[in-house]
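Q: Two folds, back to back.
A: First:
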Amino acid sequence: MIWYPYEQMKTMKAPYKIVDAEGVYLYTEDQKLIDSVSSWWSVIHGYKHPELNRAIISQAEKFSHVMLGGLTHEPVQRLAEKLKDFLPGDLDYSFFSDSGSVAVEVALKMALQFYMNRGDEQRTMILALNHAYHGDTFKTMEAGDDEDYHFVLNAYGPSKYVVHIPTEIQALEQAFEKYRRRLNCFIVEPLLQGAGGMRMYDVSFLKRARELCDKYDVLLVFDEVATGFGRTGNRFAADLVLPDILVLGKALTGGYIGHAVTVANEKVFRGFYDDSPEHALMHGPTFMGNALACSVALKSIELFETQDYMAKIRRIEEITRREMMGFSHRQIKEVRIMGGCVCIEVKDAAVLAGYQQFAYERGVFSRPFLKYLYAMVPYIISEEELVKVLGTMKEWFAR
């Protein structure tokens, strides 16, 4: 029996069974659905993309996986070199893993050990945001701040190692002043907080965070698992404000295979580069640098660059703003739009009960959560298809 995610198995309704997928469409036995959430925000090129398929098949004919312990291979070497050129600043050192959550764990471990390698064992604390979501493994849950996902940690009581603040500069400055000698990192989902409610905030907050991290010798970590590859309307938020550690996943492989990377700058890498074996980063996911994942990631990045995906994302935002302009309803608290994301926050979660089936019957797959009805569409979507997604959202409130 399958144990499904984020579901009470006793009361859940049967999931839709997918028998095929192509472009922006998912196919059940009786319906054709526009995937308005890109399989948890990852399938940016759509399904069954011929070039991505060929990249997987070509590599599988050689080998699908070898461990990186004592071995290496061309796809992982090429991907590391590509990321070095593709990413801003001196984000040059790629540590691969098999999921976004694990990649964030690696980032938090790096930040802690960076100071331990210096002999500074006082910097044990993490600064994070209210409504943060960084994954469902244990340290990422601790860094997160969402009772709906992480209530199991209540068994341990309040954490001594994590401080959460709102996205307000005054709160940021106060936290740095209070905890400055105890912080090892400040971790954020930059500009757009995903699972915490599609919350959007201004780049000025990140710029001030960078200044304070420099002033107080604290590492700045960007969790761009969800926001990377254009979702905020920027290639990466890291193009606007440069972090010390950047975490990527989801769209890294175009949604084809679970894979992620924790990318460190020169400063962080040099904190581990030493004759002492105790200063090495002792971490090693079995499937890190998987050859299939690296091959399809290389092709995904190539498509992103050569087919001007940033222009596609600007067009998605333009159409979304046009279609949602002036849209309101007594049950809606706010409509938020940023890059390739639109979110309707309602006042009461009960308002969205039944929407998924409503959308299904109109040819759209959607997965609202809590008080949030949102869309993060594949970037290859046509104007007609996008208008249909947005129209379905609006139609729900016009009943």
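A: Second:
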Amino acid sequence: MTAQPEWQEALFLRLLEAGIRQVAYVPDAGHAHLIRRAHAAPEMSAYPLTTEEEGIAACCGAWLGGQRAVLLLQSSGVGNCVNMLSLVASCRFPLLALVTMRGEWAEFNPWQVPMGRATPATLELMGVSTRRADTAAGVVTEVEAALDDAFTSEQAVAVLLGQRLIGRKRWVK
């Protein structure tokens, strides 16, 4: 196992400290450390989704059940969430989503580019505030602000984790 950047562990610890108890995710290499740590943490329940919009409903259900949740997804899955985001807006559920960006810096897959470009505007049009972290130094600060926005002000907020931060993806043969 390769060593993870310090920001990934700091991010996990901040989510744990903030009372995140459910982690809904679509498997993604950019979220692999968070997913592994959430599965190993006895305080958390981590579960994979078959599609991203299920995560919106799961986070709403967690809130109704008295727990805080986070949704982990990739920018290519944001488009799948548009209709379900109306539930968040209509019922004023808090939502925290961490979105690994694709279609940006050093992207090798042209299929990722359109949704990567559209992700911030799509979220904003659906009433989701967006924050962005492109450097390791900014991740925890942006997530801390997003935690406050989501769970104190009961807003929908997404933190976009830039592709430069996540690192270059390559197909491995």
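Q: And?
A: Helices lie at 6-17, 32-40, 52-64, 82-91, 113-125, 136-151, 163-166.
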